[in-house]
Amino acid sequence: MSNENSTKPLPEDAITQKLEKNKSLTYKAFDLITDAILPLPKRKSKNEVIAKLTDEQVQKISDIQENAIAAFTGQLDELESALGMLAMGHHFGWKVLYMIHSKKTIRKYEDILGVKIRDIFPEKGPSSYRSFGLNLAEKIGNFWKVAGGDIKIPDRRKVDYEG
């Protein structure tokens, strides 16, 4: 004889399914709203989205990188990530870096590199216009609340453009 309960979902499963369905609907609604108020930026040429660094800036980045590598102790993935932030900073600007990293992570990477990102990178770089999170934060009008996570934005770390 079969157990009638074997075909009925457990209450926990039903709750989980309902939450997942609502979460999915929330993200779909968010996508529709953001598509209406935040169209994808038009694609620019490579020359327009890559920062043009001076010889002095290139040397400064090289010095920061070499000093960080020489002085580093710890987990290598943290050094690698800090160096990645260093490589991206001039192209996207420090505001985008705050969109993709927490304040705590930024401080950790600044300690590894021995710099303050707001001192070496521009507020916005030539590729910052592609940042979903930065664009929405500017529409909302409160960058620090979005960057700090007080205002939740799905895909705030996403970068995109209209192909």
Protein topology:
Elements: H1 11-37, H2 46-49, H3 55-71, H4 76-92, H5 94-100, H6 103-113, H7 117-120, H8 132-140, H9 143-147
Helix pairs in contact: 3-4, 4-5, 4-6
What does this structure look like?
By secondary structure, the chain is mostly helical. The protein has a domain at 39-147. It is 62% helix and 0% strand. It has helices spanning 11-37, 46-49, 55-71, 76-92, 94-100, 103-113, 117-120, 132-140, 143-147. Helix 3 runs antiparallel to helix 4 (76-92) and helix 4 packs across helix 6. The radius of gyration is 21 Å and the shape is globular. It starts with 10 loop residues before the first helix and ends in a 16-residue tail after the last helix. 20% of the residues are buried. The mean pLDDT is 84.
Q: Give the overall form.
A: globular
Give the overall average pLDDT: 84
Nearest-angstrom radius of gyration?
21 Å
The structure class reads mainly alpha
Order of helices and strands: HHHHHHHHH
Give the uncertain stretches in residue-range form. none
Descriptive tags:
163 residues, mainly alpha, 9 helices, globular
Quick summary:
This protein is mainly alpha-helical and 163 residues long. It has helices at 11-37, 46-49, 55-71, 76-92, 94-100, 103-113, 117-120, 132-140, 143-147.
